[in-house]
Structure prediction request, 318 residues.
Amino acid sequence: MAQGERWLEQVRRAVLLALVAVVLLVACNRTAAPPPPEASPATTPAAAKQVRVVVSLPVFVSLVEAVGADRVRVSSLVPAGTDPHTYQPTPRDAQALAEADIVFVNGLGLEGWLGNLIASAGPSARVVELAEGLQTIQDEQGTPEHAHEAGNPHLWLDPDYAIEYVRRIAQALGEIDPGGAATYQTNAERYIAEIHAFDAWAKEQVQRIPPERRKLVTFHDAFPYFAEHYGLELVGVIVLSPGREPSPQELAQLVDLIRQQGVPAIFTEPQFNPKLAETLAREAGVKVLELYSDTPPAGEDYIGMMRRNVEHVVEGLA
Ligand SMILES: [Zn+2]
Prediction:
């Protein structure tokens, strides 16, 4: 009996020790382990599941980032510094479209290569045309074979239209990600206020150009909305349609026009070969400066790109 009692006592102790060990282990794990998911507040942004956004042009990346901030991951089909009119899509673009939650394009025939790409990538993502239904300027400079029937597509170079693009981006993102809708609206309003502030500054800058010198000759026909918004006269363009070099007669006519009209400078764009503009400027005896239409300069957003454009216009024409 005594032996049996001692054995029983040993078993009791062993069980007690094991229990203490288990309690200690559990307690240690509690403090070491990350908080369980149900402990985080329900309003935490879904950082792990960002909305995958694909845009057609690099300039739209910054508009979507301004609205979406860390709720979105944005990539552009057309790489920085590439002409979107003559762009040849790659298999990687089809992949990006297939993985996208939403796609923002300009429309109005700017991305002529996009239709087949979207058809082949599958229709899962929503495609939003940012310029859809907006009042366009008809192409006056374009050749008949290139003229965009729907009107000139470069509306975002007028800040008022860029604001409309931002509103559409916020609306569409809020529809596919309702949890972020309020954030998208707040961010959009903040960015719109920044665009307004830029625009007020820009209009003051343009006043420094004598009225008779507010004349614009650009590389391709991307600036009619910009010109109209800032009270500049669009005198001519160097290439009538991207990818088509002007004939010697057309160049000679443009040189005459620049001289007759007293245009102080002409503008090239970094995505095009500058040789043509340089030749023209030499013939006409004017300066060459750069304007940005589709790709902001490195490290700049839409507003930074527009600020550079205004600075260059004032520098060239004032
Ligand atoms: Zn263009």
